[in-house]
Design brief:
The protein contains six helices and seven strands. It is an alpha/beta fold and 224 residues long. The chain has one domain: Maf protein, CATH 3.90.950. Strands 1, 2, 3, 4, 5, 6 and 7 form a seven-stranded mixed sheet that branches. Helix 4 runs antiparallel to helix 5.
Length: 224
């Protein structure tokens, strides 16, 4: 039975984020993951000045749109997807804001180290953008989005040695704000105010609302 028939609905995740994948699996959803290959830095530069919320929403939208584009090459890293896609397509992106400055992925160890020295003992806002496209029956339909956020409070006793050891793992280099809460970085975070799912890059409550706004029952996505 296809998604258009009102049965089970497949979710395609336009991301290879381990944290997003693990979050979906934990709530009963086994998505098909498709790398979107969006030039994030180029897209942000072309857009001009953006708030953190605007930036994550833009990139989430571009990732989802890239995957549903008929010209998109699903091979070789297509995660088992075949064209046309039949289900809901989710794009996501995250950014961290400290003192009004917006940070994405640091990429470089020296950049991650600089950020940790600045955020140690302080707090900042993590924004998580979502964009959901209805592609049931292989037809591109309505698209909607939303942004979740949470304030992250970092411990004030994090040593330079701990920061260096954390950076040496490579974990903080490809995540917004140079930290995680679902892996080695968890010990450096004292508390979170707001949507805790936003910190891992995928708000489950927000995704449920978006799914239902597209006329799909949340439970129709459960497949594991």
């Amino acid at each position: 039975m296809s998604a258009a028939d009102g049965g089970a609905v497949r979710l395609y995740l336009a991301s290879t984020s381990p944290a997003r994948l693990a979050t979906l699996r934990a709530v009963g959803i086994e998505p098909i993951t498709i790398p979107s290959k969006v030039d994030e830095d180029g897209a942000v530069a072309a857009a001009g000045p953006l708030t953190a919320g605007e930036m994550v929403q833009l990139l989430a939208r571009l990732k989802a749109e890239a995957v549903v584009d008929p010209a998109f090459d699903l091979a070789p890293e297509h995660g088992g997807a075949v064209w046309p896609l039949d289900g809901l397509v989710l794009g996501g992106d995250s950014a961290f804001e400290l003192d009004g400055e917006v940070f994405g992925k640091p990429h470089l160890p020296e950049t991650a180290r600089e950020r940790w020295h600045a955020q140690r003992g302080r707090s900042g806002l993590l924004y998580s953008g979502h964009w959901l496209i209805d592609a049931r029956g292989g037809v591109i339909g309505q698209a909607i989005g939303g942004v979740a956020q949470a304030r992250v409070h970092f411990a004030d006793d994090i040593t330079d040695a701990e920061i260096d050891a954390y950076i040496s793992t490579g974990e903080p280099l490809e995540v917004a704000g140079a930290f995680t809460i679902d892996s080695k970085g968890a010990g450096f975070i004292e508390r979170i105010d707001g949507d805790p799912h936003a910190v891992v890059g995928l708000s489950v409550p927000l995704l449920r609302k978006l799914v239902r706004r597209l006329g799909v029952e949340w439970t129709a996505l459960w497949n594991n």
